[in-house]
Design a protein that fits this description.
single chain; alpha/beta; 16% strand
Length: 378
């Protein structure tokens, strides 16, 4: 074990326990004073208990933030042990620029994420102390990471609403987002280079991405932030999950996959996943998109095309907590009334983050497989 990391780990643990003892001592004294005053009306006692729960949550967040500020990041390696990492950011693939080489000589410490699912990948790697800000469009998080609450800046919005001034106000050294984040109207190459911001676009967001690209993103981010061991652990866990799905449904499921229509949005025409990572997730789960012949990850299709191709199962994408509403829309759509999936009640909702690519994508393979082959997962 690295002696510097081992020493800092002991110091971190000692400081954490001392600070925790001190702050919880304050809470304990406060509680004793409340017990002495037993004449308080019941309603006030209930209110006090609620305040105490809120205080405990604040104490936990304060402990983490204070310890992280005082000690080196536990997940990252020491600067003198860091091997420079060079990556190629391919903006050419989406017509937003050229291929750009980015070289890292130390782990980023002020990262900004313009994507819910990419924030979760960073948190999955234990990098909450390396993140200075993240964006989100709703208060529903599909994965519970306690470290999320310790990130200094939680911005509501996306690349379209976060201004360049707001971005520069946190002095970022790393920006991760989908290709569109780095378009000419947003945080383009010139903006990032002139302000010392390294760019990162995920491999898993291309039109022909497969699950191998999820592993590649974990591996690359692990190298950039100096958390290769954690990245490999997660890669191994994801591979194990997918192997378990394969074993459960058997080879025949892959030879004769169940046909899937993915409903994302739309009324007169539908936006749907075709290939890319969502298409590969369907295949790993023993299914196949009815629009697998379309040479891109996402496309608009007509209702008539969906009816003609008659999917056995419909998978609806959920952005927040609107799953039941989306299923109702599909089930009650007169144009789809005779489609096998609707007739047989095989319409399900899944979270878009993991389908599009995030820390729970392997679990998404298992979830969809359980919808396609429920008898295999009883």
């Amino acid at each position: 074990m690295n002696r510097k990391r081992d020493k800092s780990g002991r110091e971190f643990a000692t400081a954490f326990l001392c600070l925790e003892k001190f702050l919880k001592g304050i809470l304990s004294e406060r509680k004793k004073r409340e017990i002495v005053s037993m004449r308080l009306p019941e309603q006030k006692l209930v209110q006090k208990k609620m305040e105490e729960k809120q205080m405990k949550r604040k104490i936990t967040a304060f402990i983490l933030a204070s310890c992280f500020a005082a000690f080196p990041v536990m997940g990252s390696i020491a600067a003198d042990d860091y091997a420079p990492v060079t990556i190629t950011v391919d903006l050419e693939r989406s017509g937003l620029g050229d291929k750009v080489e980015e070289t890292f000589t130390e782990p980023p410490t002020r990262a900004v994420s313009i994507s819910n699912q990419l924030t979760d990948v960073l948190l999955d790697l234990g990098l909450e102390n390396n993140i200075i800000a993240f964006t989100h469009n709703h208060d529903v998080y599909f994965h519970d990471f306690p470290g999320r609450d310790t990130i200094p800046n939680n911005w509501i919005g996306d690349r379209k609403t976060i201004s360049k001034e707001q971005m520069l106000s946190v002095s970022p050294d790393f920006l991760i987002g989908w290709d569109s984040t780095f378009g000419e109207d947003y945080f383009n190459r010139d903006f990032c280079e002139s302000n010392g911001i390294n760019m990162y676009t995920p491999y898993m967001c291309t039109d022909f991405a497969t699950f191998e690209d999820v592993y590649k993103d974990y591996e690359t981010l692990g190298q950039i932030f100096g958390v290769e061991e954690r990245a490999q652990e997660r890669i191994d866990e994801m591979k194990k999950t997918i192997e378990e799905v394969h074993a459960a449904i058997g080879d025949e499921a892959y030879e004769n996959p169940i046909t899937i229509f993915n409903y994302d949005s739309g009324t007169d025409e539908f936006f749907t996943a075709c290939q890319g990572l969502p298409g590969d997730i369907f295949k790993l789960a023993g299914g196949i998109s009815i629009f697998d012949d379309v040479d891109k990850a996402w496309a608009n299709v007509s209702i008539e095309q969906v009816v003609e191709r008659n999917p056995q199962v419909i998978i609806c994408n959920v952005y927040a907590d609107e799953g039941d509403e989306t299923i109702d829309f599909v089930m009650n759509n007169e144009a789809l009334a005779n489609v096998d999936a609707v007739v047989n009640g095989r319409v399900y909702a899944v979270n878009l983050d993991d389908l599009e690519g995030s820390c729970g994508s392997a679990d998404m393979v298992r979830e969809i497989a359980s919808y396609l082959y429920p008898e295999k997962f009883q």
